[in-house]
């Protein structure tokens, strides 16, 4: 921690050292309770709630079932969203993907705004939109209304998905970056699994609308937190959060700021933002390591997205599982937590390099694909449980490494955009089409075993793509200087690890 304190306490600008912290006023302030570990915990809980929502809408208690009629014309009423709104499997699949539309549109916007607005405040805005949208889902009255509400849920989630991982990467100890990312992404499988259980219990006993009301209540405190807490600084960015900062930034001659303050600043600023976005996208797409990583992630997410939505229904149909929500949820919670954590710790143990990350991605995905494919071949349900659990354990080990590559294959100022475009790609080409396509395939085949085997085979493609990444020339760019980072401002928000540094300039703990 001593070397870290030294490197983060002083910022060298030319021949002058500027001390970011350590003024008499700052030294007199009590230590902040908002430590890096607490930041991680808060972000993990928010991420968990995001994915609880996805699991809940896929659960049999919330999603429900279609109306069924026998040969004599006697019909049994449907249940949940599907029954109340009389949805086909295809429409049901579209509903699962509707929130992705908002996510895909809003993610690049939030990533671009991070250059002008403090990212921590953007997270607060996004979570507020998410909370209101979840509440409106419970008040929806037909397929169109709930689809629109699900799109708004995606808009709210976009800010958090794009910006949370860079914050964690900035503040995690150097030797534990992948472990911290693993803890954060562990909330994806465990959140979906908790969502199965939560949706099953609440939807069955109180009603599917109550499940969405509960989500909104749980997210409200975190939405408020994003506005009331002191904003944090993100590596690669310096935001004009005060008049003094704004004045200093303008003196650097930044083209974007000069244009935005001109007489026709509004229209020029929009054009400047679009130009900057286009330039950043061009630079991002030139990074072969990033592109190959995302291509593998797309194939991977195509399978995982369909698993998360159709898993309980497939298990109920193939193996006549009672309480399929609970069983799939239990397996996913256990294997998702262990697998995701293991992936992060293993990569830290191997030494966190981009090449090692690709090795772990390809091997874990290939072995996991074999186990999951074999599981759906079993006719015995216990054989399915064992192989599928091992498969999920291996498949979820990819969560930390794949996001490590996204964050470290690009320069710091491009990290929010890299996370945003990774999210856009894996959804628009991955789980957005996979859920309705699998539903359409099942409507045609009427055989869940065949459908799941075809779906699982796509994991082999992901393993092959990530295997190619091992042989690419790769450079970790985390410590690369950003050409967009202006002269440091003394009173700007700083990373949490800098706030914890109280030693005098040049001291080593």
Q: How does this model look, in words?
A:
This protein has helices at residues 2-9, 24-28, 36-58, 60-63, 80-84, 89-113, 119-139, 143-171, 177-185, 187-205, 208-228, 243-251, 255-260, 265-285, 288-319, 324-350, 354-377, 381-395, 399-408, 415-445, 448-456, 458-469, 496-499, and strands spanning 10-13, 16-19, 68-69, 75-76. With 509 residues, it is mainly α. The chain has a two-stranded antiparallel sheet. Strands 3-4 form a two-stranded antiparallel sheet. Helix 3 (36-58) packs antiparallel against helix 8, helix 10 crosses helix 11 and helix 10 (187-205) runs antiparallel to helix 16. The longest helix has 32 residues, at 288-319.
**Continuous helix count:** 23
- If you compute it from the alpha carbons, what radius of gyration comes out, rounded to the nearest whole angstrom? 24 Å
> Which strand-content bin applies to the residues?
under 5%
Quaternary class = single chain
Largest sheet: 2 strands, antiparallel
Number of strands: 4
Unreliably modeled segments? 1-31, 239-263, 483-495, 497-509
Structural class, by secondary structure, is mainly alpha
Features:
globular; mainly alpha; 509 residues; 2% strand; two-stranded antiparallel ribbon; disordered N terminus; 72% helix
Brief summary:
The protein is mostly helical and 509 residues long. It is built from 23 helices and 4 strands.
Topology diagram in text:
Blueprint: H1 2-9, E1 10-13, E2 16-19, H2 24-28, H3 36-58, H4 60-63, E3 68-69, E4 75-76, H5 80-84, H6 89-113, H7 119-139, H8 143-171, H9 177-185, H10 187-205, H11 208-228, H12 243-251, H13 255-260, H14 265-285, H15 288-319, H16 324-350, H17 354-377, H18 381-395, H19 399-408, H20 415-445, H21 448-456, H22 458-469, H23 496-499
Helix pairs in contact: 3-8, 3-9, 3-10, 3-11, 3-15, 6-8, 6-20, 7-8, 7-11, 8-20, 9-16, 9-19, 10-11, 10-16, 15-16, 15-20, 15-21, 15-22, 16-18, 17-18, 17-19, 17-21, 17-22, 19-20, 20-21
